[in-house]
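Exercise 7. Given the components listed, write out the predicted structure of the assembled complex. Treat all entries as one system.
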Amino acid sequence: MKSSPSQSIAVRLSTVSELLSLLKASGRWWLIPMALALLATVVLLGAVTAIEYIAPFVYTVF
Amino acid sequence: MKILGISAGFHDAAAALVVDSQIVAAAQEERFTRLKHDRALPVEATRFCLEQAGLSIESIDHVVFYEKPLRKFERLLVGQLREFPRSRPLFSRSMISWLSDRLWLKSKLIKTLGCAESQLLFCEHHLSHAASAFLTSPFEEAAVLTVDGVGEWATTSLFHGRSSEEGSQLELIEEQRYPDSIGLLYSAITAFLGFQVNEGEYKVMGLAAYGKPSYAEAFEQLCTIEQDASLRLDMRYFAFQRHPERSFSKALEQLLGPARAPGAELQPHHADIAATLQALTERYLLALAERAKEKTGATQLALAGGVALNAVANHHLLTKGPFRSIFVHPAAGDAGAALGAALWATHVVHRAPRAAPPRNLFLGQGYEKAEVRSFLEDCGVDYQAMPTSEALFQETARRLAQGEVGGWFQGRFEWGPRALGGRSIIADPRDPRTRDRVNQKIKFREEFRPFAPAVLAEERDRWFEFPEDREEHMSPFMCCVAKATSEGAQTLGAVVHENGTARVQSVHKDNNPTFHGLLSEFKARTGVGVLLNTSMNLKDEPMVASPCEAYATFIRSDLDFLVLEDCLIEKRQS
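Answer.
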């Protein structure tokens, strides 16, 4: 059984959603901004790797 | 109901398959990939389990992962923030690893194993261990203790297990949380003594027999066992909470002296430190057992988690603990949690009634006699095919009685880290020189490491002392040591350790008939129904799985002969 790219993204998004729910439920909601920042970094780095033509503009972010 | 259990990610990845409450197959990934403690998703072990049952992944009702990775990630964030900024090196390394890979386990399972998201379930780490212990035990009610390094948050847990026709339940009574952990303390001292963490703990246990617990005062500073059996570590002495490679701090070296470099010569004080650690572990487990008895009122105890592989401490629990009956899951480490996760989904989630406890744990891959012969003929190996089992036992026993050391490959391979007569190296246990020969020329390992005896169940008490008023379910799986009787200590020089004990395997005719047949024949020749039994592998390699790997071990070592099913191969003719 092969999963399509859109299914794969959906599974990852469900993981992010579960993580945020877990942090909220365990009373550690204050970790949510940090988790989101870390995940945003991953998305950014992933995008840089995947889409080469946006790479030159990324340095401005940092 | 068809349930596949999976453990992976840290060490000892494994897969286990339970179909209609029966354990059909279970194996560690390392047996197939030949990478010791392989932690990758168990693709090969899963393939084997499905093939063994003739099933496809689509036909499985649930694929159950043995822990909850998101809760583990939460613990990492909290733990490392507490230690910030000293935890920076660990934080950057673990975040790279988690954000690029481990956090996305669900996607990986779907992509790698080919299952659907709807098939996936996640069980908690210690609950998986508890299920592995309780649901393979002969008990319908028991206190269940799980003790290891750390799961998601828990490092030690106490459950109350109950089973009936309406299913099973594992009620969490209380738990000890990270960072206070006897498993992490044991690992830190293992590293301090120059051994590899997750590999050298057995060596520390073996080394302890050569020392005296003379560091008790220093260890009092490292940790405290409270009245309620909880453990408190003084984190000044440890670094595992902030450092990616070091598990102990400089303060520990100031307390115990300089750490031993890996490979450096062992000094008497190293053995004393190991002995003190062992004594502390035994004291902690005993306190936990007393607490478990008080909280559950049960008379039986089931035990799992990496610390439950400490066969010396298990003996201490059996003889000095409050329970009349004890069972330890033979694959007590993380591999066993794959089976536990599958059993949890079967009996706790789906409330299926339990089948009879497994009679043996030969759950790995087996090979037909024709396959073995075909392999030998393809490789041009001369072999002698034995016409009957009796002829095989007689010829093997004759050689062993003459002092030869042989490989013994029969049936499906064992579940767990112990060789129980499926993939064993066997020898006459009477001559102490055999131990040195097997250590130096066959397994190429440290000379202080002991070997275990396999003994006919019916003459176990002739050679080893087990308490008469206690019932143990550990010796068939080599999970417990016992003191040798005076006759045992005098006769069994190759398998009785420095402190007069041995990690005994009692072999029963009804659940291990082939090995029992060999032991009976050896007894008929020598009057001793005992054999030295150690796993068939060379140093730092996983135990062999296939005839090819067994033959490779045979030709690379000083083994005199090899038995592959009904074929006998001699070194000088091959």
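Discussion: The mean pLDDT of chain A is 80. Helices of chain A lie at 5-25, 32-50, 55-58.
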